[in-house]
Amino acid sequence: MIELYLGLAVILLLTIGLGLGRVLRGPTATDRMLAAQLFGTTAVAILLLLGQASASHAIQNVALIFALLTAVSALTFVRRTSIDNGAEEEQPDGD
Amino acid sequence: MTELFLAFDLLLLISLIGLAWLLLASADLFKAVVLFIAFGLLLALAWTRLGAPDVALAEAAIGAGITGTLLLVGLGRLGSKEKCRPGRPPTTTMQRFSAPLLIGLITPSIGMILLLELQQLQRATPGQQEAVISLLDSSGTEHPVTAVLLNFRAYDTLLEMGVLLLALVAIWSLDQARPLFRQDPVSPVLQGLTRLYLPILILVSGALLWQGGQAPGGAFQAGALLSAGIILAAISGRSLPLRGQGLPLRVLLAGGFLFFLLVAAGTLLREGIPLQYPRELAGTLILIIEIIATASIAALLAAAIAGGHPGEVLESPDRPASGPGRNP
Amino acid sequence: MAINDLITGLLLLASLPFFLAGTLGLLRFPDLFCRLHALTKADNLGLGLVVTGLMFQADSWHQVARLLLTWLLVLVAGATVAHLIARKALEDGQRPWSRR
Description:
Chain A has three helices and no strands. Chain A is mainly α and 95 residues long.
């Protein structure tokens, strides 16, 4: 069973690596934030699997905290104001 | 099975280093911030693999959550021109060769040191674990990490609280807090999420605080969760009442550090050594310090995200004061 | 192999395509709104199947409840964030991709 958990965790880690491509490419800021949200969810899954593989309850608590906090980051992004008042938001940003 | 653990760790390591490189090399600041948030996530994973759930909790709470929010808010303060920092081509000879030279010198040296250290890794050393466990009964708590943080090395935690307070003073001296979040009507979906999340955040924060005596948890993690709750409330349009923005706010912010100082002074007077808790009071003192520290840390982090001092709140009640970024 | 191990294994394996679909969608779909779709697949079913699979391995009802709570929080967060991002993108003037 542990091999299954760990194998799955490795594959999920690989998907995070793949998702970095979206962060790098963009083109808008929202796309990058989307990818971060996906990483948060995948990290919760990885933590749950690792916790089960190590039979540790503490790690499953960490997964709960993760679930609580990725939401706050993403919501801050969506509802924030900026000096230019979002004028640059829908245009592809540099690099 | 160990090969799978090794594969996981190796993948994590490569991702961490790659992420760090990418985020430092990126010209677009927003991209760098998102990469930093991802870096915090992976770092929390690394801490769990290293068998340190307390640090993983702290990293998840503070590194991935609070710092990400702080950076995003800070980015919002920059104009769009400052968000891209395109590199400039090197002009003088010194500029052209200094970087390759430094990298060529430092990387092999660090590589050599790490390779030599690898041999030492074969022998697992228990570190200070035995000393801590043998003294655990007299520390007033059952969890070794809490015992170290709040009893054996309480001095460090005291200074950490002082550093947080100092950082906030620096932030307050720079600018006045501006509205952080949009004022337009809050979508009912967001309100629903807040109604679900806020009670859970408060409860989990309290649970973390309480179980810090037996299991991974403690004041910093609980405080970070609470401040995330405050930010969430601000996002959904709730704000701090005007009456609370003057003296009570400052008392709350400084309270943790000051109370800890008080305890240090009291123990200095009574036992001759600061922070030498009397044995029968150790557990109680640790609990009270943690409770006050949690409230203080939550306020400090939320105020840091607000990004500036509250406006003049001593005006007459009918004049709207520009409060901190909690949607006046 | 015990029956609950078998169930866990099946559920965990079933979650894999959803996570993969989420990431591939994020990478390959042509615009923001499509990528939001992909994102929520991983949230809903990917994590859901992992959580359900692990529930069969739990030692106590307390653990089951904690797993369920984690999934619920991620679900609500994912749905809300997707909704808000889409709404904001529409307000900013982005139009969905069409085959043109």
